[in-house]
# Entry
Amino acid sequence: MIGPLKALTRRLDRSDATRTALWAIAAYILVITAIRLFASPFLEIDEAQFVGNVDLRLVYGNSHPPLYNWLVRGLLEATGWRWALAVALLRAALLGLTLFFVLDAGRRLGGTVAGILALCCALLSPQVSWMSAHTLAHSLLVMAAAAGVLHGVALLLTGARGGLVAMAFWAGAGLLAKYNIGLLLAPLAVALLAEPGVRAELARRRGELPLAIPVFAVLAGTAVLGVLRAPGEATGRMSKLYREGPFAGFDVPLLGVDGALSLAIAVLTWGGISLALIAIAWRGSPPAAPVAARILRRTIVIGLFGFALFVIVADISAVHERYLTPLLMALPLLAGLHLANVPWRTVVVAAGLATMVAVPAGVVGMVAFDKHRFARPYEALAAPLTTLAPPGAVEVRSTSSDLAANMTIALERHGRQTHVYGDRLAGAAPQTLVQIEPEGWPVPDHTGQGWCVKDDLALSTAYNNLSDRMMGITAVIHVRCSANGQN
# Structure
């Protein structure tokens, strides 16, 4: 083990190390995308939410800003409405951008070694590596936007042109991606303005403001307009913060003590490895770029303390790791700067490389042996429905939105004109309604609403993997009732 690590140490100092890292990112993204496309033509739960929600509007039922929906629509148009290909290409682009921004920001601030270490520390975060490889949507987009903002900071601090414009663009895009980008933007602004050198640099860059300000205003204004037009829809997901969390036993009336404990666990789950590495390296050597490290450190501390105060005062009960993604994207970059000069830095690089191998292998294993949606037999379950449903447009409904989305895709693959309930892009009025529920779930009754039951089916078939599991559904086929109430 020592020999390969010594060789890796020498390679880190080579001039082409950054190019090698870029090739590694490209290979990693290519492998993940190939696995995803080979695994299934159907959608994971975070991907399925866009089926029926790609008409162009400012607010969708998922209570998120609209940018991800718009990007999915654009890629659907470009790929001939191939859902799996569209969402896989978007995931690949966003994850690739995220990793590139982290690598290049670290390189610009602290040198090649700092950039590679920042990349590896990012990969050691489960949200960046594991979760982004097979799920996440809006959180992945805001992750890329946060990394873009930090890359703009690196451009600003190193005197490169376009830093303010880049920060403005990605900050605005972040607000169109997910509102929690504010967890990064507010403390980062305070941390930047607290540095006299940064204030002087901003004064020298006044020439970028005529472009930066309108770019941010247009993007952020679009997000704000959506909230103002439909505040209820735009903020509906806030209720998730008040669900009973794992620390409900520590709850104090009117104070979010249980939420603060949940926040602490979320921080450790998201970036515990980077925090531990920074703590170990703290006394060993100074960071590669002291001013940048101070700004990043202040950003994280201000953001976490501010959010913790909000959680306690607002009596919030549950905080998930993905909520912290925009703020904690600064953590791998800070870790890269602190680790750049430690003698054991190659261990971190080796761990990052191992993650690049482990994540694709883990996705393959999950699809092969678990109840993952990529292995669910939607197409086989749709086959008898295709035969029994009368000719004409079919509308699919389900209490499980991802089941409705994937069965819609399955019926379309069987040649049927199909849409999910509520799809504003649906063409002809449906002549058939298919209500589909997981086995054992109650089935809503649509009789008396102009629909009559034609067939009531219980279907079950094996997963498309090695698990020997079965997937069962209940499907009720409805047709339009005649004048006398008969089908």
Notes: The longest strand covers residues 451-462. Strands lie at 394-397, 418-420, 432-438, 451-462, 470-480. The chain has a mean pLDDT of 91.
